[in-house]
Amino acid sequence: MTSPHAWPRLQGIAYGGDYNPEQWPREVWREDAALMREAGVNLVSVGIFSWGLIEVAEGEFDFSWLDELLDLMHENGIAVDLGTPTASPPAWFFANHPEARVIDREGRVMGFGSRGMASHSSPAYREAIVRYADTLAARYATHPAVVLWHVHNEYGVPVGEDHSPASVAAFRLWLQDRYGTLDALNSAWGTAFWGQHYTDWEHIDSPAIAPSVVNPAQRLDFARFTDHQLRACFVLERDAIRVHADQPITTNFMANQSWTTDLWAWAREVDVVSDDHYLWAADEDAHIGLAIAADLTRSVGGGKPWILMEHSTSAVNWQPRNIAKRPGEMKRNSLTHVGRGADGILFFQWRAGRSGAEKFHSAMLPHAGRESRVFREVVALGADLQRIGELQGSVVQADVAVLWDFESFWAQDLEWRPSEDVAHAAQVRHFYEQLWRDGITVDFALPGQDLSGYRLVVAPAQYMLSTADAENLERYVAGGGTLLVSFFSGIVDENDAVHVGGFAPGLRDALGLSVEEFLPLREGARHTVDWPGQGTFTADIWQEDLVLRGAVTVASHGGGPGEGEPAVTRNTHGEGVGWYVSTRLDAAGMAALFSDVYADAGIVPASRPEGLELMTRRGDDAIYLIAVNHGDDDASFVANGTDLLTGAEIAGTATVPPGGVAVIRSTD
Amino acid sequence: MTSPHAWPRLQGIAYGGDYNPEQWPREVWREDAALMREAGVNLVSVGIFSWGLIEVAEGEFDFSWLDELLDLMHENGIAVDLGTPTASPPAWFFANHPEARVIDREGRVMGFGSRGMASHSSPAYREAIVRYADTLAARYATHPAVVLWHVHNEYGVPVGEDHSPASVAAFRLWLQDRYGTLDALNSAWGTAFWGQHYTDWEHIDSPAIAPSVVNPAQRLDFARFTDHQLRACFVLERDAIRVHADQPITTNFMANQSWTTDLWAWAREVDVVSDDHYLWAADEDAHIGLAIAADLTRSVGGGKPWILMEHSTSAVNWQPRNIAKRPGEMKRNSLTHVGRGADGILFFQWRAGRSGAEKFHSAMLPHAGRESRVFREVVALGADLQRIGELQGSVVQADVAVLWDFESFWAQDLEWRPSEDVAHAAQVRHFYEQLWRDGITVDFALPGQDLSGYRLVVAPAQYMLSTADAENLERYVAGGGTLLVSFFSGIVDENDAVHVGGFAPGLRDALGLSVEEFLPLREGARHTVDWPGQGTFTADIWQEDLVLRGAVTVASHGGGPGEGEPAVTRNTHGEGVGWYVSTRLDAAGMAALFSDVYADAGIVPASRPEGLELMTRRGDDAIYLIAVNHGDDDASFVANGTDLLTGAEIAGTATVPPGGVAVIRSTD
Amino acid sequence: MTSPHAWPRLQGIAYGGDYNPEQWPREVWREDAALMREAGVNLVSVGIFSWGLIEVAEGEFDFSWLDELLDLMHENGIAVDLGTPTASPPAWFFANHPEARVIDREGRVMGFGSRGMASHSSPAYREAIVRYADTLAARYATHPAVVLWHVHNEYGVPVGEDHSPASVAAFRLWLQDRYGTLDALNSAWGTAFWGQHYTDWEHIDSPAIAPSVVNPAQRLDFARFTDHQLRACFVLERDAIRVHADQPITTNFMANQSWTTDLWAWAREVDVVSDDHYLWAADEDAHIGLAIAADLTRSVGGGKPWILMEHSTSAVNWQPRNIAKRPGEMKRNSLTHVGRGADGILFFQWRAGRSGAEKFHSAMLPHAGRESRVFREVVALGADLQRIGELQGSVVQADVAVLWDFESFWAQDLEWRPSEDVAHAAQVRHFYEQLWRDGITVDFALPGQDLSGYRLVVAPAQYMLSTADAENLERYVAGGGTLLVSFFSGIVDENDAVHVGGFAPGLRDALGLSVEEFLPLREGARHTVDWPGQGTFTADIWQEDLVLRGAVTVASHGGGPGEGEPAVTRNTHGEGVGWYVSTRLDAAGMAALFSDVYADAGIVPASRPEGLELMTRRGDDAIYLIAVNHGDDDASFVANGTDLLTGAEIAGTATVPPGGVAVIRSTD
């Protein structure tokens, strides 16, 4: 379903943040409105956690303060993204419906007092959220401030799976719907193993704590079910709003920072894709994680512009050590999101809250107040975003796709895999990082989608790969594509069952090899990889016994259990080429690998200063270069046009100072 | 309430330990009495864990063995500290009252079989402890052996918080008493954040496990409530005893080794303060932790003499590696307690028990028996304590106060702080350690108390500071005091809410600065601090963005996010001086800092050999120097008088051998 | 009870594995039979996890597929080890009997979905297993394929202890049976400590989670009870089978890889001892752990031949990093088991399963299929085992016994011991490893058994030692034996109570010393041991204060708390010698220690190349040398005879290539 409105009624880049005025007295509201105007804020998200202050008792609504607030915002020219607070039901809800509380794998009942997350399978909860969404939308559908609806908050966080009786009952129905017969379920789950055969649907439980590891197919299906239940609740709310309202409806994703939701499916249900992203402070290259988030958000949305619904002006509060952003960093982060397709830059939150679990989370208006570095940078960023308003609607194009299938993540990260060193996300990051350093724009893609538009497709540890998806990859290569596959790919089917025929049988033709046995390495073990013509590299984590069936050995293991065997292979298949790498190469090895792969794919990475991140958006009438300098030196690159931030004309060479940014309307 | 008797009827220093004769046959009792006399024991604690052997069924008492024991002790001239065993109700109690079992945050019911800790909110438990205390006191109030009553054992250990239904119900009543209205509670807890607004007292639960972090103000109040419930049970027992008995009443604290009880409040309820202290074996400087414990115990008791109710003759049994004390160490530990105000030196326990969880805990009479190093040292210590009996009643005086507010500990150590490297206790230790090395006697103090008697007040990471307390510190400086404050001080009010006006607004005048933003460092990150005139030091964990408002930069960060900004500042305010340090300095940096701070405070640390701990007690007629040599060489210091342990006359210089002690009645 | 048949009706060495055809369609069964014949398989274990596929509803059996399978096996000349699947009751069982689910210490109910482990105290479970075993045995007692019965699977794994109400009720009955009176129980458990006195059997619970550490004697008894309940279930099944069938009955042990079962007691109940063993991948010397497993398995069986019921052809799946075996390693492992007494070499499992928790576990027929390194080596191993069939029935003899008492393990590894660095298993391994390196064949033994046949008895940290057992060791020494005892031996009696008279009083005469105090070392602390004539070594973990009472100091601590005190002592007692070592010596120190100890014991280790493992089996008519070369070079040793694997005649010197094996029928 697509809304009649694909984008909120806003000019230029949306700018603002979560606004929680219910934490503050009325005089602060007036001050906030004035400061928002000073900062160039044009959109605030309101009501995300306000259930109990609006539905003050079950079925009894008091909208007076919200009426007043929306009017205030509208008077000040600030649009509103109006939230349904269904991520946090009020205390009375749990008192009236104690059975709606979430129960975790260990049987622990999740109490009230933090975010009051409820069971998404609870009939009482579903009734309540529809009532709320309906009542809210009926009241504000025509309010002139409201330009966007914000359903719930970060579905699946902080808890996704629910083992309450309501959830177990719903799981049984979901399974009946999926499998039809118990024979089909027994077959899909492989219940003959460990004596798990089912003869009655009512005997099936959620995969809660058990004497040993629970059936992985059951756990995978429970992950699918969890995603389904969350999304079903979204759809209930969305449809209740749509009865009354025409504005676009969204919910804020968590891209690569939450794993409970299949964002490919979710993106089909929202009118506008929006995402929350927070830097991981312990990561010295956290901006690469940010780039992944932005590319993934854009990709699940099919390349359309999207909204960065939350990020932070400085430190967050929930990490072990919450590193403050340094001057210019918030701007760099924001412009990178823009460069990768965001047309809205919002923060959690407008004003730092004095109380509660997140009072040490930074805000647009920090505890230090108006006279502070952060607020000064917030004002400056608002002005910058106004200067680049013309980018709104322009798009990002990519020649390379990296596979990203949430179901494969769910399966791969279960217990009892060959090595706990092969987390899926880390493998994706490892490959993406080289592409980032080479300045290559990347889309993420599903293995089963049409990939013919890409010069290169990369599959890092794509553990789960259905036969159909493997055939799609084979066709892609045969048709002329270049495919780069890492170890531990194509191992299981959609039921987490090893493919008939061994490991990765579906990739044999494309890659020209078969995988006979995994050779995980001991903790800390490292071995060389000898690559004639490229040099000697280091690798770790994994090796494999391969049987080449047409592929050529490009590099070999210099030690370890697979000593002398192929580490990197290349295979021509049809019109294309299939590369395979059976270990985790170090950074230099990855650079060598990609340099050869690019050659096959016809990709020529531009030479650029290290630390310069260069992105391109294409509008109807112009091309925009967004440059972000993460380095400590001036960074120059070839450009012609106008720097929209400074108004400077660029002829031939643009230079961005250390930590700086540029947005150039290109005339090339 | 103060008892008519401020100290047990004993001459000199009390000496002895927990005595659990119920573990042994009668013939052992006779041997014990003889060996106690040999060791100079004059006080034993009896009955701490004897509930089930005295109240053999609910309401049915059998005192026969205890009668016999008290008579035996009295015949041998050994006084008794008679315990109520309410820390460990018997098996029949839990069988009769299963609802009185403690439930933890995760909903797990704590079973019987270890210490049978019960819910302190349970009506059945409260009825039972009053019945027991009343019956016991009625019987033994006039027994000539009994000189002290010992209620319960280590309140709050091993479990403090209780989430049983009785506790939740009591919590609601406590909250109604504290807040009066739900509006006041909603405001104090900041329930507008994350949608936690309450409309009914019955909707409030204990802060048990929830989907994410629970409201910190709720957790802080639950810590207060827990302390209150424990203390209310103490008061019930104390008052039941007082109806019958005149002897002083105590309960054994855990000073800096348990965090559940606000000892400032507890000290007001006991007649005599007593404390348990155990070395932390992994700490190579565990004697500094001991000094903190002793100073804190003395401080909460208002400087009056106190009893070391438990320590160990050698190893304990509950640490990962239980290091045995080396020859002389028990004596050094004991004399340090005396030097810091203890007038009683007792041990857990008299005779090593053969069975149970603590059989590897050392004792005065170890498993090896009478012919053992430990027992020989026990006998020698008994003789030494008799030699210094005249110290009884003398007092310790301090020029320096270090702030210690249990409520601030409770708040600071909750989840989601800016950095998990800033545990409150470690910061206090960091500052105390320099004072210890400089030989400065320290009191601990509440931030709101009269501080005018101190030359220097130190506030290490005093995270919670009410406006009134901050004003008290400001007045202290304005009146001529020297105040040294570390980073992360004065951040929140008594509800764990950030102060209006940002971080540490109440300290701005005294310190001449404001704190704009925290800059926690990454794990392991270290940077220099440049201190003109003092040198270059290293620091870690934390930096800050400061705005100076009158303060002068004394030292600066040489790197890190706050590079070039102030690391140490000094501000004259009124008649006094306020120092601020925005990072964690290494040991050399702390020495430099304090050397400057002492100069402002008019404190001149005496030059002494490294490792020599020198303490002073002042009696009505004499001054006593207690010297403990922790070093490997002879340590000499200026003294005149008589060494009470050896009888030697000291003229000009006293010398203590490595590992030795001296107690000098000074004629200076 | 001993079966009329001490060994299954098989010729030569048994070879095969678990076979789970219920996971596969019928056409695969035919292929399997053919490939088994190719591999020389003569025994497969069937039905281990098939409960729900045979008893399809409570009391309703369908044996059709099993009939077909057994016939197929028989037609192909493959014998069957027929299992009872009682380690994994079906879903309907738990639906019908929810109270039969296991509950863990924390009160968590173990759900269905992995291995469906049930409460072994549940009446419903016991009824069900007897019904199943009876029905199965009645049907197949005379089937010609069936040569062995395989009851249950790995008793005690993955869960042993059960805190369900049925278990608690059974525990009370077991205690009444053990102790007779509550007085006896109170005395044995030392309930006077911490106020745990019991006045009613019904007040006693399982040692579930409690506020602090639970009574260790109670935990020790619960471990005994757990073992008893598991074994009682085995006996129920065994006796039900025996009513119908004459074949030997076994259950697969876990030797040194599970700690829930007292294998000395279990071995008395089975007709044939069998064991499962898996390499611990993180251990670079995992083959030494394998040797311990094999020696322990043989020892508990009284030296009789035994069956290796499960090991792996390559990697397992349940370790953090599952290291694949390298070419030849499976053969070396298998021959080591043979060399240490195994007359059967079986694997988990025949064909790799596609689904479930263990799909990445290797198999005889791997996912890669017939054309794979693993299957080729499986075929070769089958042929090798046929070549050495004459070894069947020959035995292993040892001059050295290492004490191994499961009850002492249970007691020693409870909480609150003097140092967590003294795990019992690690100490046993430390001593065994030196014996292994010296090529000494080792039996494991109980401290109370007749030891007079051994030249040397080693007691590594034999924490629990009853007075009677200590007297047995004293008699052994007095009679001429050599005894080597490590620190932390002889500390407690069978109730985990410290012996009257201090530590190790029962060993004073044999060792000529007493232990006054433990001196555990801090983490990472290392000190020298000075051994005149042998050199200087390093040691860690532990020292002790010893009082010599006749023993001579052989080596001394060069530092640490016991500096200058004895580290190693020697004592002549009667006709024998008692050695004591009070620290953990490094490898060189252990070599020095044993070289002196061997001299006293009259043991002369043969000089052999490093890495060569040489084992001897003695038949009625021949002696067999089994040589396994773990090294990287050719290894030669003195031998005369015929290599059964190659047919080569050996005259004087045999040489085994790196990674190779030899089995020589010796003519010496």
UniProtKB/TrEMBL annotation, chains A, B, C:
Per its UniProt entry, which superkingdom is the organism in?
A: Bacteria
Extract one GO cellular component term from the record.
Answer: beta-galactosidase complex
Question: Carries keyword Hydrolase?
Answer: yes
- Where is the Glycoside hydrolase family 42 N-terminal domain positioned along the sequence? 18-387
One example GO MF annotation: beta-galactosidase activity
Annotated keywords: Glycosidase, Hydrolase
Q: Where is the Beta-galactosidase C-terminal domain?
A: 611-665
Query: Which CDD domains has this protein been placed in?
Result: A4_beta-galactosidase_middle_domain (cd03143)
In terms of SUPFAM superfamilies, this protein maps to: (Trans)glycosidases, Class I glutamine amidotransferase-like
Annotated InterPro entries? Beta_galactosidase_C, Beta_galactosidase_Trimer, Class_I_gatase-like, GH, Glyco_hydro_42, Glyco_hydro_42_N, Glyco_hydro_b
Catalytic activity as recorded in UniProt: Hydrolysis of terminal non-reducing beta-D-galactose residues in beta-D-galactosides
Q: What is its EC number?
A: 3.2.1.23
Q: Which Gene3D superfamilies match?
A: 3.40.50.880, Glycosidases, Golgi alpha-mannosidase II
Which PANTHER family does the UniProt record give? Answer: BETA-GALACTOSIDASE GANA
Question: What's the family?
Answer: Belongs to the glycosyl hydrolase 42 family.
Protein name, as recorded = Beta-galactosidase
Q: Which organism is it from?
A: Microbacterium bovistercoris
